[in-house]
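As a warm-up, study this chain.
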Amino acid sequence: MVTVGKRGTVVPRAYDAAPSVSGVEKRVLIGPKQGAPRFVMRHFTVAPRGYSPEHTHPWEHEVYVLSGRGRVRFDDGAVEVTSGDTVFVPPMEKHQFQNAGDEAFEFLCIVPLVGDDG
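Now compare it with the structure written out below.
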């Protein structure tokens, strides 16, 4: 069954337990509640000076940047990203997303179902 939703109706989950993570909100746009059997589409908003935890895991990330300026840190360095950029994070690659600007940094992130914490 096809479902249609709106980002604004999804209650965000806040992640703000510095020093490991600061100023991050996640909305699950498509996941098990919508009947998705394999993947989860999440919308992240990272506040100015905010950042995700530096971490690794056995699944990939597929990211599309919607707005703002961000920095993706990984083992070999870091790269800045802006609206329209894509990021592929392979399994077991250490990574972190940081806001690199003065406005919200927003992106979509798709992971396998096992890769979402709810």
